[in-house]
């Protein structure tokens, strides 16, 4: 049977690239992009697009009835820094959007559901280095709280209703194609733009803040690999730890200077995003993803920097 895939939140940083990648694999007409806003990219022209609010269950129901999806990717969310400005909205969107999709997936017998989690599920008392798959999780942002609750719901729906739901805890994602979406790790995108435009950047995170990051191509490939993996290999139905490369603003700036020698980095003080970053891991142990579905990143820091600079220059 041909796959019919619905991607909700298709205009976001992940969605724009995921839709393009899925259309290459499954055919343009078989991947339906959905978002609350009109797409800025060529997503609308390269295949079906629908206006959808994930909190409106009737609209969602009509999408399931019309397209009868075999796979649904739910990417619509308010991210960490944006969520802190409107915590109730973040909780409502991140939580009820997920529950709507899980319920409809059971009603319409959708074969697979994908929902992204985040390193934001970890908190001040989680181990900071090589953070394990299973450990203390005490998130202190509404984004992290909603992602941790979402992980529990995903596992619950798998255990209770046998729904094939899959998830990855994304680190900070770096891409030149789409604008960042208001996350704490977004400095690692802004820094490249400003390095090329102004030759200087004021980081909102301090020099020693080490965070797990990943180049978007790796994230998209890993997501599709997880969804393609045989269900018998997937033992984790909450969300998989997922790692690429960890670095600080200083380390990243040094890499950029290999290409833009005159680049300077300064630091803003008392940014609320610093507190969020301080509660997150410095590095991630993703051995379950490696062992169970063969995950392996392709982009190290050097290759990531070259890709960002070369593509942004164009």
Task: Give the gist of this structure.
The protein is α/β, with parallel strands linked by helices and 314 residues long. It has 2 domains: 5-171 and 214-241, NAD(P)-binding Rossmann-like Domain (Rossmann fold); 173-213 and 244-283 and 298-313, UDP-galactose 4-epimerase, domain 1 (Alpha-Beta Complex), CATH 3.90.25.
Form type: globular
Helical proportion?
40-55%
How many distinct folded domains? Answer: 2
Q: List the total number of helices.
A: 11
- The fraction of residues in strands falls at 15-25%
**CATH fold label of the largest domain:** Rossmann fold
Structural class: alpha/beta
CATH class of the largest domain: Alpha Beta
CATH level-4 homologous superfamily of the largest domain: NAD(P)-binding Rossmann-like Domain
- Summed over residues and divided by their number, the pLDDT gives a mean of 95
What is the makeup of the main sheet? Answer: 6 strands, parallel
Low-confidence regions? none
Q: Count the strands?
A: 14
The SSE order reads EHEEHEHHEEHEEEHEEHEEHEHHH
Separation of termini?
41 Å
Rg, Cα atoms, Å: 19 Å
Strand order of the largest sheet: 3-2-1-4-5-7
CATH architecture of the largest domain: 3-Layer(aba) Sandwich
């Amino acid at each position: 049977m041909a796959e019919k895939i619905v991607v909700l939140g298709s205009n976001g940083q992940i969605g724009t690239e995921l839709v393009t990648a899925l259309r290459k694999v499954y055919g343009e007409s078989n991947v339906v992009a959905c978002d609350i806003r009109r797409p800025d990219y060529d997503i609308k022209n390269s295949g079906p697009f629908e206006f959808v609010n994930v909190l409106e269950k009737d609209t969602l129901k009509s999408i399931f009835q019309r397209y009868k999806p075999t796979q649904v990717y739910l990417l619509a969310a308010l991210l960490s820094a944006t969520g802190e400005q409107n915590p109730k909205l973040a909780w409502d969107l991140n939580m009820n959007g997920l529950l709507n999709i899980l319920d409809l997936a059971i009603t319409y017998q959708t074969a697979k559901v994908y929902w992204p989690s985040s390193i934001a599920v970890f908190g001040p008392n989680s181990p900071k280095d090589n953070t394990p798959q299973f450990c203390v999780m005490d998130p202190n942002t509404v984004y992290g709280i909603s992602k941790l609750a979402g992980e529990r719901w995903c596992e619950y729906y798998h255990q209770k209703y046998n729904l094939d739901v899959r998830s990855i805890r994304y680190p900070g994602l770096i891409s030149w194609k789409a604008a960042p979406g208001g996350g704490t790790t977004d400095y690692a995108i802004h820094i490249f733009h400003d390095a090329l435009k102004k030759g200087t950047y004021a980081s909102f995170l301090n020099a020693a803040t080490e965070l797990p990051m990943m180049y978007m191509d790796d994230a998209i490939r890993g997501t599709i690999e997880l969804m393609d993996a045989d269900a018998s290999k997937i033992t984790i139905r909450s969300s998989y730890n997922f790692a690429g490369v960890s670095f600080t603003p200083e380390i990243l700036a040094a890499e950029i200077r290999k290409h833009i020698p005159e680049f300077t980095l300064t630091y803003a003080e008392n940014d609320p995003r610093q507190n969020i970053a301080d509660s997150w891991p410095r590095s991630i142990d993703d051995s379950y993803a490696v062992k169970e579905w063969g995950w392996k990143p392709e982009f190290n820091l050097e290759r990531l920097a070259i890709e960002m600079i070369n593509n942004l220059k164009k």
